[in-house]
Design brief:
alpha+beta; seven-stranded mixed beta sheet; 11 strands; 19% strand
Length: 294
């Protein structure tokens, strides 16, 4: 890109003492440097190839550790550095970004006014047994990973007079789960690995129905740790390793504790049928924005 190498920052490991803080934190070592989602991966102790996590907030970010190999995606994902510890080789990851997850619940609350607080969506969704044949694809500003289609716009497909606000609430939660499924499938295809379980964190993990839905559509266990703020925890882990507070990665693994786990229970034929319906709904979001904005 023509940027002089002298202008670029020096590449340093994720865990080492870079210097000392000043002011009120004078003499406190600055010892960890991890990006937001990379810190969450580290905080979830996903240190081995094939281990992955998803952080569920306004949007959601799924990272899969691919070890010391840089896997170049052909399925709409990003290749990123996960972390490097000391002189050891850097570890890499595949990353998939989902634009609309928690913000879909906010839209359901504020835009449609069907609930008065975000946690109510689980209660409303539990008033029905399924989505009533309704599927939501929240492409409010296009589709992110793995599609990357800026021309897409959101749809609610399969509406009939039978559908109630309870069905819509369930379709909202399912939309989060199916978007995760699309990214996981892309990661499996790119890496040649199969996700054995998904470690989750972030505010949306308080929704137990969503967690069970995730396990059902992914067909793998979904695991939530005791500490849900894994971004801060991961940064602390890196700094603690650098100053010797923790001795190695195995100590960090033992420090990770499970708070909840959800096992898949959906019939395989139903899962395939629902996923096919979702993909047909996704196809109806495409080519909505025409060239020139018409």
């Amino acid at each position: 890109m023509g940027v002089p190498r002298a202008m670029l920052p020096e590449i340093r490991p994720s865990a080492e003492v870079y210097g000392e803080a000043g002011g009120a934190l004078a003499a406190l070592p600055v010892a960890g440097a991890l990006g937001d989602q990379h810190a969450a991966l580290f905080g979830q102790t996903c240190f081995a190839p094939g281990e992955g996590k998803c952080t569920y907030g306004t949007g959601s970010f799924l990272l899969l550790n691919t070890g010391t190999d840089t896997v170049r995606s052909t399925n709409g994902l990003l290749t990123t550095v996960a972390y490097q510890l000391g002189d050891a080789p850097a570890h890499y990851a595949l990353e998939g970004s989902i634009a609309i997850t928690g913000s879909l619940v906010q839209w359901f609350r504020d835009g449609l006014g069907l609930i008065s607080s975000a946690p109510e969506i689980e209660t409303l969704a539990l008033t029905v047994e399924d989505n009533g044949g309704c599927y939501i694809v929240p492409a409010f500003s296009g589709l992110f990973a793995p599609h990357w289609r800026s021309d897409a716009r959101g749809v609610i497909a399969g509406l009939t007079s039978y559908v109630t606000k309870g069905h819509l609430a369930r379709a909202v939660l399912e939309a989060v789960a199916w978007q995760t499924r699309e990214v996981v499938e892309a990661m499996d295809a790119d890496s040649g690995l199969r996700l054995e379980n998904l470690r989750v964190d972030g505010g949306m993990t308080a929704d137990h129905l969503l967690m069970q839905t995730l396990a059902d559509v992914l067909d793998v266990p979904v695991v939530r740790p005791m500490v849900r703020e894994t971004v801060s925890l991961g940064a602390a882990y890196a700094a603690g390793l650098a100053v010797g507070y923790w001795s190695d990665l195995e100590v960090l693994r033992r420090n990770w504790h499970r708070a909840g786990q959800w096992q898949p229970s959906m019939d395989a034929a139903r899962r395939d049928r629902e996923y096919d319906n979702l993909k047909r709904a996704v196809s109806r979001t495409l080519d909505w924005v025409q060239p020139g904005g018409a």
